[in-house]
Design goal:
five-stranded mixed β-sheet; alpha+beta; 15 strands; five-stranded antiparallel β-sheet; disordered N terminus
Amino acid sequence: LYRSRILTAPLPETALKLRVRNVAGIKQADLLLNGLVLVCGINGAGKSTLLQCAAAGALATAYVRGQKTKVQASRLLRRGADAGSLTLAYAGGDTKVTYPDAKVEQSGIPRTLGTALGINAAALMDLAPKDRVAEVGARLKADPTKGDLTAWLASQPPPKISPQNIDLLWERIEASGWDAVHATAKEGGTRLKGRWEQVTGDRWGGKKAETWAPAGMRPDRIYDLAEAEAEAARLYEISTKMTMQSVASRTSRSALEARAGRLLDAQAALDRLMAEQHALDVEGERLAAERDGLPDATDAAAFPQCPHCLRAVRVTRAAMHGPLVLEKAPPALSGEPLERLRAEIRVNQDAIERLGVDIQRNAAAIVEARIALDDATKAQRDLEQMQTFSAVSQSDIDQAIEDHRMAGRRVDGIRSLNAARDIYQEWLVNERMVEALAPGGVRATIMQQRMAGFNGRLGEVAAAAEFAEVAVSDECEATYDGRPYALLSESERWRVDLTIAVAMGQMEKAGLILVDRLDVLHAPARKGVLLMLRGLGTPALIGMTAKIVSDAPDLAAARMGARHWLKDGVLEAGA
């Protein structure tokens, strides 16, 4: 009568109905989950399995008790049964899972009641640290926005990051994620250090790069590169002129005059050869025109015949892999006219070949004539330069060369100093972005802000359950009464896990909370938990080990909910 009543009664908006048949150790169970529902029984009675069935319905999954594949899930069918199922009904629809096929079906309005962490089907502290941070961060919406990034960078000391660079950085974050862009930025910093070392020839160091300058130069001074380059150019002209003067004094004037005396003859020879080249080009154009004007010398017998009009056609291909083209054959030639035409074509081709040889020979002569002209021209310039020389000693020449070398070293030093400064400034900007992208940068700042609110919520839940203080660090390491999770007792860890699950369930508006092993708490401590769960306004399915039903809290008598006894796989109404 009770089972019939709960299956047919109208379903309140937040209430749930759970029906389990032949799943693992559960033979038959029907529950109305409205407020607090306590299921108790001896060890191995199937309480945890019943809670896991409720989780499967709430999460719309066939994988109960850690099953990960359909083959594994098929083994959840109760031994001796042909088929098993669990159904979780909610306002507007239901979720049904059947075994052994591990099939999930939803009718009405498909719905899940939360996540495994939010309904306490899984514990946050069982996850790896980075996964805990990801789960909590997602619920806290702790992923920084572009505005968060901009504000964080603005709060840092110089150098400041330009809005354009922030835009580019944010585009990369959206495309690849924070960690990937952080790794790329670190690699960029390494490359900048390598560039600095190439420019300076020194080993990188942050402090060293800030104050580095070439020998003889001050790191706090701005040097005028254009002025230094002009001075180096002036000294180069002086040293070159003095060297030329010295060379000229040791060079035979008669040899220069002999070379310069060939200038007019060399120019005349070049002019003659250029005229001959023009004549050869004209003759070549005439022979090419004559060749192009000759008709096709193909034998008429070589053309195929069109099968339709019986006329001769010619098959051509414009390109090596192009399509074949059919066109009307040229006027047919054969016999003596064909032979005369072919003879005329051969004469033309022979003339073109001979002309090509003449053109190559003339071109080679032109090259030699230009070399001779250049040599005579240079000798003429050297003679003219000699007129401006005055006597100069070797010591003067050596000093002029040394002055130019020192000026060149100064130019190189200024260039290295400017390049090193630019690279260092670029590195500072890159380092600021590396700091922003690092896990301890913008993300940590936002997580700290969000985590403060989350810990406030944890404090409210813990106080309602009459627990000691439960808190979670930015790295998602939990503490109870200030002591780390790893050092807690079993019951203290249970309190931490429940507090976190309830807080996460509130954040995601979960429609169910599962609480297994209530017996881990001493009887006086259970009341606070039950009062806290009742205050949630969410259906709560609670499991508890008890030797007899009277050992478990009578929720009906306390007007807090219902109590049920689970025995031999069958759920019975409690006292």
